[in-house]
Structure formats: C-alpha cells, structure tokens
Amino acid sequence: MLTEIYNIGSNQCSNLVLLGVTLQSDCKFSVHVNLKLIEANICLHVLRTLRKEQYSQAEIDHLFTSLVLSNFVYGLPVYGASEPDHNIIQNFLDRFHKRPFISYPISMKDLLNKQDVKLLRK
User: Fold this and answer.
1) Is residue 24 part of a domain?
2) What is the mean pLDDT of residues 50-64?
C-alpha cells in the first residue's frame, strides 16, 4: 500500500515528504529523524553564538523551545513510535542539557505522551 503512494507516474521514489514528515518506503522514519537532527544542530550553533553574546539562560531556554523542540514535536505522534529513532533524539536532547544549552532535562517519552493526549482530546 505504501509503495503505491510512492509511484509518481512511472518513477518510484524511496522517500516522500508529506506535510513536513519524511516517509520512507520501508515504513521507517530514520531519514526524517536525521533531517530534524541536522536542523537542530544548526540551531545549536545559533544558541552557542547567543550564549557567547551574554544572553540569559531564560532567553536561551525560550529560543531552544521555539527553534529545536518545535522541530521534534511536529509530527511526533507519527514517527515517535520507533524506539531506535526515539533513543537517538533522546541522546541528542541529553547532550543539549549537559552542555548546558537548556536548563532543564527533556524526556522524549514525556513529549510523546503530551502529544498523544493532545491528539486524543481533539
């Protein structure tokens, strides 16, 4: 069924971006997670630069939530069920907390549960 979606004319593609979520023909989301990690690394550079400019930790936290977390949270109920991808993102967020670019720890499981509750309420 999923491979039928990827048939575009007579050409087939292995990845399809649909509403900002990259779908793969093997029903995994590793490409999507890798793209989100690349975007988050770019934001890491921005946050590092702002921290050198003496921005307060509260401002850095707010920017982290706006720039980085929003990338990971969008579409999380779709790709969040994959435990290996889940662990990759969690390790990345743990590094953000250790360095410290964010003053509080973030749990992917908590984010996923919050998104699931939001989805069920709607």
Assistant:
1) no
2) 90
